[in-house]
Write a structure and sequence with these properties.
disordered N terminus, 6 strands, alpha/beta
Length: about 190
């Protein structure tokens, strides 16, 4: 039986063979509790599945598994020390790259705009004192041209083969997170 499944499933990715195999497409971006009641032998999930309600019962195990075991780049430790010394470290993740330049992603997701970040920073200023903002982005040239350059802002530029992991790790170390409409910053803000 497994040989047949292995042969057939890749050629029919949008089909289901209940109760043995089902493809579940995410219909919207928020939690669908019916998904948790499925009891097929094999499930193929298509979508983003961002709600933590899908895995909250396993949150402890996921946090235990999601450890950074890469060798950090040269800049990482100085940023880490600065975050640890900050009374209220706030990560700001600005995703532009494919959200601006990719023909499909720019229409589906798109850059959420500088106004969103300005409002979030103002809200942080109202709620917390002595915030230090650590800015992470895939478009630093744009950010430096269009973003505030106040003394309490640090523009993080990790380098090396795992620069993105170093960014994610540092975002995780911050006490607060201003996230983009991006799973990358969502995980950086969620996994504490």
């Amino acid at each position: 039986m497994p040989k047949i499944l292995h042969y057939k499933l890749p050629t029919t990715p949008n089909h289901s063979f209940p109760p043995l195999y089902s493809t579940i497409k995410e219909e919207y971006y928020h939690f669908n509790p019916q998904v948790l009641t499925l009891n097929n032998y094999l499930l193929n999930f298509k979508g983003y599945w961002h709600s933590e309600n899908y895995f909250k019962d396993a949150a402890g195990k996921i946090k235990e598994e999601l450890k950074f075991n890469n060798i950090p780049g040269l800049e990482f430790h100085s940023y880490k020390k600065e975050i640890e010394r900050s009374e209220n470290a706030v990560s700001i993740h600005i995703r532009r790259g494919d959200y601006v330049n990719h023909p499909e992603f720019s229409k589906t997701f798109g850059f959420i705009g500088i106004e969103y970040y300005q409002r979030a920073i103002e809200l942080m200023k109202e709620k917390r004192f002595n915030c230090k903002y650590f800015v992470f982005t895939d478009d630093m040239d744009w950010v430096l041209k269009n973003f505030t350059q106040e003394e309490n802002f640090v523009f993080v530029t990790n380098t090396g083969i795992d620069a993105d992991l170093d960014d994610l790790h540092l975002m995780k170390l911050c006490s607060h997170n201003i996230i983009a409409n991006s799973s990358f910053s969502w995980w950086g803000g969620l996994v504490k």
